[in-house]
Amino acid sequence: MSHTGRAVVIGGGIGGLTAAAALCRHGWQVTVLERAASLEPAGAGISLAPNALRALDAIGIGEEIRDLAAWQGDGGLRTPGGRWLSRSSADAAAARFGGPLVLLHRSRLVALLAARVPRDAVRTGAEATLADPGDAGRPARVRTPDGEWEADLVVAADGIHSAVRRALFPEHPGPVYSGFTTWRIVVPVPGADFAPHETWGRGSIWGTQPLKDGRVYAYAAALAPAGERAPDDERSELLRRFGDWHDPVPAVLAATRPEDVLRHDVHHLAEPLPAFHRGRVALVGDAAHAMPPMLGQGGNQAVEDAVVLALLHSGPGPGGGAPGGDGLAAYTAARLPRTTAIVRRSVSAARLNLMSNRAAIALRDTAIAALSRAVPGLLLRGFDPVAGWRPPRQPYASGSTPAGEG
């Protein structure tokens, strides 16, 4: 522990709890204000890539999460009829990126993060608003129904519709609809035996992945008007859209109840923010750079944000001084270019995955199959700039970019 200061974290999701755990590790006094009645997240899975796992090493839970990896053997990309377009293996991915890709339930990750924060530091049912961002000469202030908190540092992890972001950057247009909706399911599937896969159809995708606890995490996406919902229930909608796709999709749907299905329209920040900080306030995760889920990097980038922010406020030296000065300027310098590039890659991936023109789909599938045969591991190689990131070894000055941030 090398720093003493008061930090207030607005939002008790993955980004907020990672920031709280990392700051506590560096000696900060932290309070987490979560508006929900509990930290229990919605029932869905999350994919943690090697870049996020390296960040989680900084708070001591990386290895524990790596032990939850369930992907073994082959997996890859398929067509709705079941034809493999590209194959990859868990061993090849781990060898290339220096570690596994881990899928786990969000509640498991939240529990692991919360255990790294003092129990009395987390306040649920606490609606928080930013009263004053502060500056180098005065603390920030956060208002709750029970009173105000003063803080040397405020971490805004309040999600895609962040009220703190709107307060800091009122001229920014905010999130836009990405053009598609998503469904997520976590269920036990008796007798399930399948190779992990993602399947690309016409304007739609489906993914089926095993979890270490024996359940199956399935996700789907499809082009749809914003706000559209099934006339009956979302399981029935999935049956209409995906019920005739290859195994194990029908088996997963047969094991699913209507109440097991979560549906959300996807929004993202198409226009980057001018900065990820103002005054003594830093934005992390979706509040700073919401993106489509096609690269599976939304939560991963929130974890990266949180760990880098804490490292930049971990003690003496560049970035280790008063929040609102070099530390937060360095945070923006480190995170804004990388996350902007990943948002753009995610948007491009969504366009590729969700093509609706039949001729374009045929050309896409043929090209992927041919390139995958000619250059094995090509799809994995394309993930290098994302999964290859490593946390900075020590704080770095504003305006510089550490190795691995490009």
Structure description:
With 406 residues, the protein is of the alpha/beta class. It has a domain at 6-71 and 96-174 and 270-352 and 375-387: FAD/NAD(P)-binding domain (3-Layer(bba) Sandwich), CATH 3.50.50. It has 14 helices and 18 strands. It has helices at residues 14-25, 50-57, 62-66, 90-97, 106-114, 163-168, 234-242, 249-254, 286-289, 298-311, 326-353, 358-374, 378-381, 384-387, and strands at residues 6-10, 29-34, 45-48, 74-78, 84-89, 102-105, 122-124, 129-132, 140-144, 147-151, 153-156, 176-187, 197-200, 204-210, 216-223, 262-268, 277-278, 281-283. The strands form four sheets. Strands 5-4-13-14-15-12-16 form a seven-stranded mixed sheet, with helices on both faces. It has a six-stranded mixed sheet with strand order 7-2-1-11-18-17. A hairpin with a 2-residue loop joins strand 9 and strand 10 (147-151). The two termini are 29 Å apart. Residues 316-321 and 395-406 have low confidence and may be disordered.
